[in-house]
Amino acid sequence: MKTLSRDLSWLRFNARVLQEAQSPSVPLLERLKFLAIFSSNLDEFFKVRVATLRRLSKLKKKTRAKLGESPKRQLREVLAEVFRQQQEFGATFREQLLPALNDQHIHLLSAAELSGTQYEWTARYFEDNVRDLLSPVVLDDTLHHLFLKDQTVYLTFFLSQPRSKSKKAEAERVLVMELPTKRHGGRFVRLPDEGEERYVLFLDDVIRVGAAAMFPAYARVEVNAIKLSRDAELDIEEEVSGDLMEKIRSSLGKRETGFPARLLFDPAMPKETLRAIKQKTGIGDEELVEGSRYHNFRDFFGFPTFDEARFQYPPRPALPHPSLPRTGSLLDAIGQRDHLLHPPYQSFDYVTRVLSEAAADPRVSAISITLYRVASKSAVVKALLKAAKHGKQVTVVVELKARFDEESNLFWAEKLQRAGAQVIFTPPELKVHSKLLLIARRESDETTRRYAYFSTGNFNESTSEVYTDHGLFTADERLTREAAGVFDYLIDQSVVPALEHLLVAPFGLRPGLNALIDYEIKQAKKGHEAYILLKLNAVQDEGMIAKLYAASQAGVRVELIVRGIGCLVPGQAGFSENIQQRGLVDRYLEHSRVYVFAHGGTEKVYVASADWMTRNLDRRVEVAFPIFDEALRAEVRHLLDFQRNDNVKARDFENNFIQPEAEGKPVRAQEATYAWLKSLKKRR
């Protein structure tokens, strides 16, 4: 069974991100943002995946043999592809984006390109605004160890050719200094305009201009950049007892001092400087990665916009929902019928509104919610705090192990505890990735009714503006009763709920999916129509891939829309002739998961929090929920069809853009989705 490795597949995804930076059809400053996304993604890849492969490669030979694949070989393949992509990244920046900026009268200059007047202005700016922010460290015999912060740009200074023989001017000196991006207020400095020409300078180059004044005793001052990425894995899965919150705190501290995963360095750096850095940090050759003159391209998120709307995507205000009221009770509206919400096309405010309504409603007795990633200034948590202060029973399952959000989640968990909420932490070996909200309210007939919100996306107002997700508001007892069972399980994992409608990992999702695929296989063997349509962020689990191969062999038509990791290889003789796969990268990050099965003509549609990765199916609490309402089921299918027919932003398995058929119309799924959802308010 042929599959593509998880890491190489992920790198293919990042290559699709780079394609957006290369596309002339993307607004100019948005192309820079895609470079920033590519850079940020690659940083995380080194901190997590490359660091993991390095750790695995250091295991004893017998232990490595149990892994099935050689981590050393995988690491070589991964680093070779990373090097190729970085070369392409650099060429994209230098040969495409810089000329495109110049064509629009925007000039990102280097220190060497400054005119005499600009050089003088920059030297004054350095003295007035930057010099006092700098704290160079001398790498000499008095310094025993140099600690480099994670994901931070440092400038190195190589000083030589002393102007005098004084003791202060040693023959050669190497210094290191953190680039003060945060204290300066950003990475870029705007120089004075000259007519319609606009000029921008890296903060790095401002310091290069001022370097000679900093070290007047030396005739030669060479300034270069380095950046270190550290191993980000917390390894708390090995800890199965004790206070989880304390373990998280301790592990976060270890992350800041974790093993080096990659040291990016300027290839023009003097060998004396690199030798001193290696000696003082203890970093070996295997962690060294040749970069460029500038690091941390994610800082391009803060590149000046010049107040030019044409350089960015046109505004796309979130749409009002066609069936949820703009004012008045949302709970009453949910009690009458189901409603689907589609952020960011439709406003996420409906979620925060329903929480605020529940917090203030004297008839609401209890609120239960799962929190995986929340915004830094979370309206969701503020509503929960308000509910707790009003005496309601508030149960919050906080996932402390959400990578890179542990500190934020820890902060909110403690705040909720102080407010009187019941905060639940699951065991270290189990992550809660499901997105559930359950509200209990006493009705006019004195009965208690439950209201639920199931979602593919986090309860996060910030990411809701850029992540595409689906959420279901429902009071359908078939679903709300089972949601209550999921919360019971989260409180006590020894109580596995009996579920008929929800597919819940780690105990019911895999067998449920296997049963649904087996049904399609049986239908195909009988000569009936059989198909499976899947929209996922990742397909990696070997068991599910084998099942899809078996479905293909039986004649089941399988269509995959995979944003990120896709280890299944379509079109293989004897395995996957009936499988097609595409990926979509556009303005918004595709984040929703949808499973569709023909099911003998009575199509089943599930929306889910889970990708088809082993961790999602076996080690996380995930929920796939069916769409019962016929009109809403058709709505999900209609939106999915936009993705299936995209011929503008969709790529095939090999990252080739899918082209419109002869005389066919271009279909851009995200634009079509917005236009169609906008039309709904006129039709309902």
Automatic annotation (TrEMBL):
<dbReference type="Pfam" id="PF13089">
    <property type="entry name" value="PP_kinase_N"/>
</dbReference>
<keyword id="KW-0808">Transferase</keyword>
<dbReference type="InterPro" id="IPR036832">
    <property type="entry name" value="PPK_N_dom_sf"/>
</dbReference>
<dbReference type="InterPro" id="IPR041108">
    <property type="entry name" value="PP_kinase_C_1"/>
</dbReference>
<keyword id="KW-0418">Kinase</keyword>
<feature type="binding site">
    <location>
        <position position="563"/>
    </location>
    <ligand>
        <name>ATP</name>
    </ligand>
</feature>
<feature type="domain" description="Polyphosphate kinase N-terminal">
    <location>
        <begin position="4"/>
        <end position="108"/>
    </location>
</feature>
<feature type="domain" description="Polyphosphate kinase middle">
    <location>
        <begin position="118"/>
        <end position="303"/>
    </location>
</feature>
<feature type="active site" description="Phosphohistidine intermediate">
    <location>
        <position position="433"/>
    </location>
</feature>
<dbReference type="Pfam" id="PF17941">
    <property type="entry name" value="PP_kinase_C_1"/>
</dbReference>
<keyword id="KW-0067">ATP-binding</keyword>
<dbReference type="InterPro" id="IPR025200">
    <property type="entry name" value="PPK_C_dom2"/>
</dbReference>
<feature type="domain" description="Polyphosphate kinase C-terminal">
    <location>
        <begin position="502"/>
        <end position="656"/>
    </location>
</feature>
<feature type="binding site">
    <location>
        <position position="41"/>
    </location>
    <ligand>
        <name>ATP</name>
    </ligand>
</feature>
<dbReference type="GO" id="GO:0016301">
    <property type="term" value="F:kinase activity"/>
</dbReference>
<feature type="binding site">
    <location>
        <position position="403"/>
    </location>
    <ligand>
        <name>Mg(2+)</name>
    </ligand>
</feature>
<comment type="similarity">
    <text>Belongs to the polyphosphate kinase 1 (PPK1) family.</text>
</comment>
<dbReference type="Pfam" id="PF02503">
    <property type="entry name" value="PP_kinase"/>
</dbReference>
<protein>
    <recommendedName>
        <fullName>Polyphosphate kinase</fullName>
        <ecNumber>2.7.4.1</ecNumber>
    </recommendedName>
</protein>
<feature type="domain" description="Polyphosphate kinase C-terminal">
    <location>
        <begin position="330"/>
        <end position="493"/>
    </location>
</feature>
<dbReference type="InterPro" id="IPR036830">
    <property type="entry name" value="PP_kinase_middle_dom_sf"/>
</dbReference>
<dbReference type="InterPro" id="IPR024953">
    <property type="entry name" value="PP_kinase_middle"/>
</dbReference>
<feature type="binding site">
    <location>
        <position position="373"/>
    </location>
    <ligand>
        <name>Mg(2+)</name>
    </ligand>
</feature>
<comment type="function">
    <text>Catalyzes the reversible transfer of the terminal phosphate of ATP to form a long-chain polyphosphate (polyP).</text>
</comment>
<dbReference type="InterPro" id="IPR025198">
    <property type="entry name" value="PPK_N_dom"/>
</dbReference>
<keyword id="KW-0547">Nucleotide-binding</keyword>
<dbReference type="Pfam" id="PF13090">
    <property type="entry name" value="PP_kinase_C"/>
</dbReference>
<feature type="binding site">
    <location>
        <position position="591"/>
    </location>
    <ligand>
        <name>ATP</name>
    </ligand>
</feature>
<dbReference type="InterPro" id="IPR003414">
    <property type="entry name" value="PP_kinase"/>
</dbReference>
<keyword id="KW-0597">Phosphoprotein</keyword>
<keyword id="KW-0479">Metal-binding</keyword>
<feature type="binding site">
    <location>
        <position position="467"/>
    </location>
    <ligand>
        <name>ATP</name>
    </ligand>
</feature>
<keyword id="KW-0460">Magnesium</keyword>
